[in-house]
Specification:
Radius of gyration: 15 Å
Shape: globular
Helix content: under 10%
Largest sheet: 5 strands, antiparallel
Distance between the termini: 31 Å
Number of helices: 0
């Protein structure tokens, strides 16, 4: 019976973190984005984020992001400087192709920094991509 259960694998959906200018705070801040590099939209997107380091843990944040069109992205949240030294985890679920997908993305502690930049898909800017 278990062999009949299909668990779809999430592909071409990413979490990227970008250091960019924030007009509200008048400084550069780190922002997390969900990136849809698929040829079709993803629907009913939910991202649950938390940070942890040893016995310390941040609050759990839940974000209903709605539908994200193909080859586009949407901001999830601002990451405060204090949590960059934590492991930052994003658990993402979404519907596509009449299936429910889920994936856990982790940015390991102290990896959110300019030394780890790469070009983010779709956004075509420099940032840190989650594994």
């Amino acid at each position: 019976m278990k062999k009949d259960i299909e668990i779809p694998v999430s592909k071409n959906v990413y979490i990227g973190v970008v250091h960019e200018w924030n007009d509200e705070f008048l400084e550069k801040t780190w922002n997390a984005y969900i990136i849809n590099d698929r040829e079709s939209s993803i629907e009913g997107v939910i991202a649950v984020s938390t940070g942890y380091k040893g016995d310390q843990k941040t609050s759990t944040m839940r974000h209903g992001l709605g539908d994200i069109p193909a080859k586009s992205y949407r901001k999830i949240e601002l990451l405060q400087e204090g949590v960059l030294s934590f492991n930052n985890e994003f658990f993402v679920t979404y519907f596509a192709d009449n299936k429910l997908y889920e994936k856990r993305f982790v940015l390991a502690q102290d990896t959110i920094k300019e030394a780890n930049y790469s070009t983010l898909p779709v956004m075509e800017i420099e940032g840190v991509i989650a594994n």
